[in-house]
Records
---
Amino acid sequence: MRGVDGSSQGKIQEYLDDLSNLQLSREEFDWYNIDVASMLSHIQLLGHEINESDGSSLLFLEKSAILCSPEESAIHHFPKNMLHCFVDDFRRLGSQDDGILFKAELFSISPSQEQLCWERCCRSELEVPSLQSAVSKWLWWLNS
């Protein structure tokens, strides 16, 4: 088994630090810091994203992604070649009914109960550059 290098260890610690800033229940916090952290001890973590509204997170590995859902205590693994990225820019057309100006989605084609649907939306022009940067990272990862 390949060892985990120092930069990956730093990314794992950064991920755990980012999680500590969330409003998680004690059970969810323990799940991340015990169960998920032990799983990460032997992987090369390239990056992560966190959904602050529900506490879920998406981990980017060399050839796959891992979705962690503390509400379900579930960890789902998705091979990179099963993932797709769609970006919708509604700024020229005016926002959608729900006020979304820009939307990006990283999703998988897999059985319905096992699908990845990682979505980020903007309702303000000021948020668009940050989302465009995230999409750039997704595309770099998908194509690397």
---
Amino acid sequence: MKNRIIFLDIDGVLNSVAYDRVRTAEQTNIDQTRLPLLKGLVDDTQAILILSSSWRKHWSPDEAQCDRIGRELNRIFAEYGMVISGKTPQRPDGDRAGEISDWLACHGGIASVSFVILDDAPFGWGVLQDHLVRTDARIGRGLEDRHIRKAVEILCRDS
């Protein structure tokens, strides 16, 4: 069986406009009601999480290299029994599909893994489009059950 990878965006996936309207000053930018859904996906598919979000600039595999936001990401994910296993490289042009392709190229290529991309970006995915599960921060709460079902389908079809 191929390794399973979830390329994870944060904004628009683990938060939303609806969440921003109701969150208090004590709450983080992550809507923790979305995390059990992500945890279920990780558990059901045995996938690892790779940050493809712009939030990755705050995170490092070395906790000492994380800033406050990166440490908070680790803490919140740990509360739900999840770990971030890596992050995509950053390109100067911010081309997320290119960054994911670069990560895949460094890890054996597209054919070597089964992967899904959880992101709210509507365009620019090219050959990665068939691996995209697109959320919408303006409608709903970001990540929802229907997105999880589609992500499982994508991860299992490529295994």
---
Amino acid sequence: MKSDRFENPIIQYTKWQLSWLVLLRITIGWHFLYEGIAKLSNPDWSAIGFLLDSKGFLSGFFYGLANNSGILNVVDFLNIWGLILIGAGLILGSFTRISAIAGMVLLAFYYLSHPPFVGLTFAVPGEGSYLIVNKNLIEFFALAILVVFPTGHIIGLDRFVQGLKPVNKQYRTR
């Protein structure tokens, strides 16, 4: 018997599934928003130390960003406001998919700058002992889940961006 799962892609969330997905979205959003506000409220904050402490095969790229004051100012601005806007978007369920993808890009840069590989040591020690998988990678994959299981159009401002349409029939709760 042929399955029509991919021909008729109706995704049905249970109330528990939807609740946990929304809670995941909001908590990741809070993490991003808080990190951005903390950086914004510290007039001495800059990414220079993080970039100069980079290791791995892309360290030259990150050193280049740190060694050009004009580019570093842009990196600092994009880092702070990227964190704030991504966080706000995830919390409010506004531009959820774009926010999640932007968060994944930012986390990929963090991960690639400070990869948790054997033999690499950093000026600021990590929060634990990692081998390949760290909090940035875990949060990256959690955002990937939010990209493929969007919730902003059900519980979030994305629903209003769609013109106050009823919940998309493609995504329902049961």
---
Amino acid sequence: MAKLYFRYGAMNSGKTANLLMVADNYIKQDKNVIILKPDKDTRWNINAEVKSRAIVTSFPAILINDKQDLYEFISTQTKEKEIAAILVEEAQFLTAAQVRELALVVDDMNIPVLCYGLKCSYLDGKLLEGSAALLYWADTIEEIKNVCQYCTSKATKNLLRINGIPQYEGDFVVMGDVNSGDDILFTPVCRRHYLNPPKLIHNS
């Protein structure tokens, strides 16, 4: 039987690389996959593509907005061709209703759905909507592990700095990356360093 999977991790844990490797395995077996990507993800100014810093391979994705009915969309796709799996990039940006729709896709259409994303937002104590729904509805929850930027503990949180200042309040959706030169910088951290982040040292 098909399952709804939630594979989560902190920033820079290799979630997208894992998705791309899964997609590549299906495609090499001549099996059709659908890769969905919420349109809130605007990094690299690339919209309809999934790519990772970790591997060269990239694949086209279908952009979805938070008004779309994913059950209806996938049902239409299955009338055109057999779908072996559905992969979702940045699944934390799904709505709770869309996660429920994906659960029904698994149950009614027997298609495995693999969702990749963050569990925690940068906001103090807050889960992202899609992540919270996936923790509720997923059949299988798997952690893709990463190490804290500042120690050897497991990274479980995402620390956001804007112009070097840690942020714990604000909008749920803030686009940034893990590149140290960015004004908006995300860092994978353990709980201790999320609550007590080291000061950044700028070289003059």
